[in-house]
């Protein structure tokens, strides 16, 4: 699902230009719990935590050779 417009109810996200995609993840319950704990410790939501992880991964990837994952 891709949303191409922003509404007044959409929170401002600096890194997004109001074109977003919804991803579904299948994770074991223990990983979901661990993500919730990590996000809470940072004072952010799980969604914000996952966006941060994706951004860091993509930034690292752009610094290294294409096709090699430095996760």
Query: What share of the residues lie within helices?
Result: 40-55%
Derived structural class: mainly alpha
Oligomeric description of these chains: single chain
Percentage of residues in strands:
5-15%
When the domains are counted, the total is 1
Q: Helix count?
A: 2
**Strand element count:** 2
User: Average pLDDT value?
Assistant: 78
Could you describe the 3D structure shown?
The chain has helices at 29-42, 46-63; strands spanning 2-3, 20-21. The protein is built from 2 helices and 2 strands, in the order ββαα. The protein is 45% helix and 6% strand. The chain has one domain (2-63). The longest helix has 18 residues, at 46-63. The chain is globular. The two termini are 26 Å apart. It has 71 residues and is mostly helical. The protein has a two-stranded antiparallel sheet with strand order 1-2.
